[in-house]
Amino acid sequence: MMQENNFMGQDGFQWFVGVVEDRDDPDKTGRVRVRCLGYHSEDLNRIAVTDLPWATVMMPTTTPSMHGLGETPHFLVQGSWVLGFFRDKELQQPVIMGSLPGYNTQKPDVKKGFNDPDGFYPNKLGFNDMSTLGRAASAEGHKGLELRRRKRQTGIPIANRPNVGNVSDTATDYQPGVEPIHPATKKSLAPEKRETYDELPPKSDAPTLYPFNHVHESESGHIHEIDDTPGGGRLLRQHSTGTFEEIHPNGARVVHTMHDNYEVISGNSNIFIKARQDASGNTDAKGTLTLTVEGDMKHLVKGDYMLEVEGDYYQKIHKNHYVKIGAQGLDDGGGNREEEILGSHAIVISNAVNYTTGTAPSGPKEVRMIIGGNMWRVVTGSDKKQVNGGDYVSQVTEGDTINSSHGNMIMSTSNPGLDENGRQRGQITASAANKLNLKSATSMNLATDFDGLNINVNGVELTDNDLEQTTSTGSIFNLTVAGAANWNNTGLVTENFSASQDTNITGALTLDTTTTINTTAGTIFTIYSGGGSPSATNKVDINPS
What we know:
Helix content is about 0%, strand content about 15%. It is mainly beta. It is rod-shaped, with a radius of gyration of 53 Å.
């Protein structure tokens, strides 16, 4: 007769097969209540669930069962068939070594033992206890896979470049049926067709073969797959709501979030999108980033923002564009905008352009433009300039200044009096370094309201209008009238001549005065009449004494 040592393992190995009927361990140590075949009755009146002993669940060596390390708790549920042993001869300290899968043919009977007391498991009849995701063709009927297929996004639009071919004068002229090409960049200027892309289909539609797909599926529907199917290896992590991350057989990765997404990085974040090459070393993917947002997109950068584009940079804004620089406020220094364009700048604006500068209480308020070549401006409406509180200066250092108008040309000043330096304001001065020409197709009127009209002819005559070729002859005042010349004066007319005055009249001379003609004593008036050379017979001498 074998001697009893009452020491675990030395009194024989007493094992059992049983069913888990309770996993709500009050100590939360992972224990379960097990009803063991051959040891416990199925009659709940004889042995209730609460009378069953608590069994310790043996964990794999990948879990140390210490301080919560590893994978805890276990995944046994009510209704699980298990294999174990008793570590005491009183059969009150069962240990579960593992669970036993089976084929479910009937619903649980909550009135009997060896069943789930809650009547939930098993909840699928006619299937074995392997996940359908691991059983080849039956995987297509799994609700997790079906959800991924149903939520798959297709026809996602991709941003395209704007059509600005008619802005730059360096672009080729548009010809119907001919694709316009920019002469500098050699790129097409034709409107770009909207392209789309599709989310990869689940599993890339690759087959799953038994027994290569290792599936972990939770009670609420969370799924983790490690699929080692030859030629179709995948990794899948899926939430019961449908949010998932899947790495496809070719290494492509799909992340599909059914709700909000949050990512917080406490350090730096670095992303490198690299061009991909095939086995022959040929580039089969350029390394493109495509981002499509159906709602709003907001960026807040609390430091500096640097954007470098080695190719072309396109912006296509369907509505308005708002930019505010110096949003920190003028009291904190405001902000500047500086641009350098090593090429041309072409702008087409369909409506108005409004500029307001110099609104800051201090600082420079000038608008400075330096144009290295020509400036061509065409205004189909009015062109108005108003200078408040300063001077308006237009200077041409080389070339001509031409003002031409199909209508009237009016120059007008107000007369505000004297400035702070005592200078008379409201004057118009026309000064020419050489000849000044005034010509009108019809009448020319000179009128003054006060102080009269002064014409001063100074200097000497020039040779061929050359300022460096002067003569000894004083400047001449010539007045030529093709028709009649009328002088109407209501006041005193005074003429002073430092030399002789010659007046040639081809017609009659009529002097009509109601008073007298006053001359300085000794002045002689000689009037020749009858034509020909002056002689005693055709002249009249007036010698007032």
